[in-house]
Amino acid sequence: MQNVYDVIVNMRQLPVTELGAGVVRRDDTLADGRDLFYYDDPGTQLGPDRAIDTRDLGPRPATATMRQDVLTGDWISVAAARQNRAFLPPAELDPLSPQTPTNPSELPSRYDVAVFENKSPSFGPALAAAHGDTPVADDAPRSLDDLDALALGNTRTSVGRCEVVCFSPEHTGSFGTQTATRARTVIEAWADRTAALSALPGIQQVFPFENRGEAIGVTLPHPHGQIYSYPYVTPRTQRLLSNIERTAPDLMQRVLDFERGGSRVVLSGEHWTAYVPFAARWPIEVHLMPHRHVADFAETTDAERDELAPLYLRLLRGIDALYDTPTPYIAAWHQAPVHVARDTVRMHLEITSPRRAADKLKFLAGSEAAMGAWIGDVPPEAAAERIRAAVASAYVEGVQA
């Protein structure tokens, strides 16, 4: 049993960086060398000291390998270490809760928001060039063109980085269950990590996201999201780049103007608008786009982040209000590639859910899964009307949306 003396001895003050909105970042490392960042709420109740991670951890798994599908050009990361990740553990063994004498979790100290390197990542820890103590992959792609050539049996090391973003120390919840203050802290963390990850050697795109609900495949009920940093531009973004080239550089502004002038807007503010897209694929699908062109979170202003916190909460709570039980979803923050198309690809959120009724899910069967040919179950206009009504009834910290 850990005594009071041990707790005092194992505490230390960490390097501090002041960010926007009164958020403070404290930099630490875990016992196996992985980075850990604490993001303290403005007016946090936490003290300046943080506990040292004294676990006896084995070596980190080797970086995964990417294999190229020569028929599509897609790169598939084969990360066998992910098979060992935690699966629906009880609350007393939650790996994302603060450590206790009986729970040797990933977080040594109590925290407001915490970000750390994934123990079993799909990409990394190796990078394309030297960066601190991070290993270097000799076969890492040096440019986007380096991955374009098609060849049977083509492989590369899955360089990159995967991070876990803990929204709260509580065992259960989601982004939508947080306070507006906490949501603002998470947004500041997303912006800070987007900037830092974009600067790593070989990173081509940074993707923050939240998976919510067992129906989506979530294995931890703890309120958290992830950030993937890819060594390539993802297939979805490549298709967007192609369509921008086929139409006009301001395609995304045109989409926003088109949606704002229609009947599918569900929520709008001074800086952001949420809408059900004209050609929605999923029974529940909402996009959220900034009115000003920004490539990623790092380019947003304090005013845009300030408005986003309560607006995003209203949107998620409205989606939860559609039925009597919480809605499973994927909340995907699409950001521009790090090195190309920064002036044409606008960051935006896409929330999708397979829930088509209180007790029914849309499964991707033959047409969607095999051919990529989607069939929508719910007219987008009807979906927008239901979501708009639900959002109007949602509350954020006691204030009606």
From TrEMBL:
SUPFAM superfamilies: HIT-like. Pathway: Carbohydrate metabolism; galactose metabolism. It holds the Pfam family GalP_UDP_tr_C. It catalyses: alpha-D-galactose 1-phosphate + UDP-alpha-D-glucose = alpha-D-glucose 1-phosphate + UDP-alpha-D-galactose. Its EC number is 2.7.7.12. Its cofactor is Zn(2+). It comes from the Bacteria. Keywords: Carbohydrate metabolism, Galactose metabolism, Metal-binding, Nucleotidyltransferase, Transferase, Zinc. Residues 151-233 form the Galactose-1-phosphate uridyl transferase N-terminal domain. InterPro entries: GalP_UDPtransf1, GalP_UDPtransf1_His-AS, GalP_Utransf_C, GalP_Utransf_N, HIT-like_sf. Residues 262-389 form the Galactose-1-phosphate uridyl transferase C-terminal domain. It is an enzyme of class 2 (transferase). GO terms for molecular function: nucleotidyltransferase activity. Belongs to the galactose-1-phosphate uridylyltransferase type 1 family. This is Galactose-1-phosphate uridylyltransferase. The gene is galT.
